[in-house]
Structure formats: C-alpha cells, structure tokens
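## retry 2 of 3
previous attempt timed out at serialization; input unchanged, resubmitting
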Amino acid sequence: MRIFIHRVSQASVTINHFENRSIGDGLLVLLGIEDSDTYKDIEWLCKKISSLRIFPDISGVMNKNVIEMNGEVLVVSQFTLYASTKKGNRPSYHRAAKPEISIALYNKFVDQLIKELAKKVVTGEFGAFMEVEMINYGPVTIYIDSKNKE
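## retry succeeded, writing output
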C-alpha cells in the first residue's frame, strides 16, 4: 500500500459532481492498493497515520499527532499512486489492485483507521469520479509505502 498524507487546514472531495464531503484541520490521506497488500499492511499504515507527529506544538515544532490535535481525517482511494511511467508517455497501472481485491482492502483500511483514531473518518467513494480540494498547511506532504517498513 502506498499513501500520501497531506496535513491540511481543510480538504474536501466532491463525488460524481454532486455529493461533497469535507474536513477541517487534519489529514487528507490518498490511498493506493496493490494485489500483494495484506491486513498487516493496513495495520502498520493505520498505526503510522495515527501516531505520525506532523502537527505543531506550542513552540511550532512538529511534535503532535492527529489524535492529540483532535484533527479530522479524509481518506480517498487513488489507484494512480501505482502509475508506472517507465515506457512511453501514457502511465501504466498494472501494479494497482483490481476492484475485486482493492474494494475489500479499502474498506478494511477505513475500518482499521477508525479503530486507531477512535473517531469517524470521512471518505471518498471507491471507483467514483472525485474532485479533491485541499489547503495543504505548511505545506506538509508525507509519502509512505508499506513495502518499505523495514
């Protein structure tokens, strides 16, 4: 699994040009899933997201996590995180998991993150056309790949 975590002062996702879901201060998490991902990847990433100290303390040092900041979290599935641009100019997405695998893993990821944070998580809609907006606070953007945890 691959994620991009954006520390935001606000973020939103509009689904199929109609439904809007949004958060205030917190994290926008873009999630990419590949066939070899397992529940262990989910557990590790969710623990990392909930404990990552990227919010400023009273001294302005990034020393607090999203739980300590009572921040909100928006998770959006994004298969393009597995784009390969080695050949030609059109990206290939052959490493991205097919929907029959990724939908279940996406749902497990969201459920595990809710468990880690002990609060509601706002989500996009898997497979839908989505427009994502954010104000990246800092800016702070962190890339994490669960295959690089050791």
